[in-house]
Amino acid sequence: MRAIQVKQAGGSFELVEIPTPTPGSGQVLIKVIACGICGGDEVCRSGMFPGMTYPRIPGHEAVGVITALGDQVSAAWVVGQRVGVGWHAGRCDNSEACEHCRRGNFFVCTKATGTGLTLHGGLAEYMVADQTALVAIPDTLDSIQAAGLLCAGLTVFNAIRLSNIRPGDTLAVAGIGGLGHLALQFGRKFGYRVVAISSSSAKRSDCLNKFGAHIFIDTTTEDVPARLAELRPKLTLGTSVNAKSITDLTPTWPSNAQLLIPV
Questions:
Q1: In CATH, what number is assigned to the domain containing residue 112?
Q2: How far apart are CA 260 and CA 205, in angstroms?
Q3: Looking at 140-250, which runs of residues are DSSP E strands?
Q4: What is the top-level taxon of the source organism (predicted)?
Q5: What digits encode the pLDDT tens for the residues 206-224?
Q6: Is the separation of the CB atoms in 61 and 88 below 8 Å?
Q7: Does residue 215 sit in the same domain as residue 145?
Q8: pTM of the predicted model as reported, rounded to 2 decimal places
Q9: Using CA atoms, how far apart are residues 22 and 28, in angstroms rounded to an integer?
């Protein structure tokens, strides 16, 4: 099969021909349909994540179809089923669950496995994934659209879901890129008053007419702290890790407001 591979820490992304993998116990083989490219793939190339070995295939926003099952795979997963695999590459099984998995915090499982980091990812024609890392993809959702939701989407979705914001409150999203444009759409569907903040005036139309924002703030022409003090967002998401932009997001807030920088 063809795959994108990093042969050593600090190496380059290379297109290679390698054997198609075989699923082991509790694993499935997936024919990849789509895989997003994320800034986290640079971590695969640089070797910054603990426990990495090489060569390694990056890619942690993968959607595809199950083509083979290993032993002891749950009846919930069948050949021909469309599934997704995100950064979270698996968790403890129920019989030997760590403290974090027992509490439902699977993302900090002591196995510390990451798709495209400690295990091969989805920038390949086929990939193997643990059954505990799978999510079923509904027929109504396009594979390309679904892929981006498995990392960028989850990052902002969970930031919103786990905050103290309620329908009718104001959500401000600073930085309208891969994460921010999804946060606007989630916020609108959740029933918030949505404010888009960007230094690109060219994004105004899409933010207001396509992504669901009620208000657009252009940081190049408007006083951002003053506008936010007026709008009083209950939750502000900063998707651009920039000291100046974060400082501008901290005017006088209403009580119990939150500033989150999802990473």
A1: 3.90.180.10
A2: 25
A3: 170-174, 193-198, 215-218, 235-238
A4: Eukaryota
A5: 999 999 999 999 999 999 8
A6: no
A7: no
A8: 0.87
A9: 8
